[in-house]
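Quick note —
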Amino acid sequence: MSNNPLLPANIDALAAYSSAKSEKLTGTTWLNANESPYVKSVNISIEDLNRYPDPQPATVINSYATYAQLTPEHVLMTRGADEGIELLVRTYCQPGQDSVALFLPTYGMYKVTADTHNVAINGLSQALLLEGSVDEIITAVGSSKLVFICNPNNPTGSLTSLDKIKAIATALTDKALVIVDEAYIEFCPEQSASSLINEFANLVVLRTLSKAFALAGLRTGFTLAQASVLVPIRKVIAPYPVSTVVASIAASALSPDAITSMRRQVTILNALKVKLKQWLAASPAVLHVLSGEGNFVTLKLADKNSFHVALEQGLVMRAFTLYGENDWLRISIGNEQELEQVKIWLDGLSQSTTQKEQEVS
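Predicted structure written out below.
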């Protein structure tokens, strides 16, 4: 219990989000945070840092609207998609009264944000989302005010069809906001729900420049929705959420040439992902590989100690507890040299397994 009388009574029950970087691991090959392996070279010259920035920089907003095939009134720029999550909960949920629906396992910030704002969690399953009927999903969602669908889902990579998202949004019209988190959508752009925004006033799409755009360090995201959804959010967002420097870099990243380069890099990463999945499928050290989208692959290890073997080799990946089992691992798609380190690790595990089998026999 906290001894600080100024803190609220529930502060001890809160758990901070455990990010990949918060684990304080050491290594030489980093494949744990779903970052892009491509390094951005940025040249900026800004002479007006003595002035406050444009709260919603028009150049960036217009460029992203064009990229997402929407209009500028549909776009709100935020400090990462995480701020978009926080703004939605803070704007649309009444503390101590409302709930948000999550399909677990999924991205941890939905729960952390709701807990922080004293908003209840309606914990549903990915199996329900993917395999259940729309009627079953709507019944389970109940009176939840926000419904978060991470698509592709992190950490499983599973994909909810646009037809199902459309049906859910239709059934929840005037009842709840359906929030589709598309942090990884550039790796399967044809599955984006942004095309449904003009049709549904209760649909919100979250985007980021952290993944395919290779700008995780910039902390830039976008909340896409009809103006009626964004107007209340604009009342509670910080007065100057986007710095002049961030706006300048984001504008460069959204130029036509930069978008073409990003898509070329995505093609390369998707091809490398196919190769990695083949290696994993052939390895006796891996029991199961989840088939999904995104710039990562999630798998179940035959022996959870294999993760520590990787760390000893300087290979840092993300260990997970999924479905009540702590032998899951998520591998980000790096460049060829980085994935070769994964191959070396897998080959070493295979040799160790073979030796043990021979000793037993």
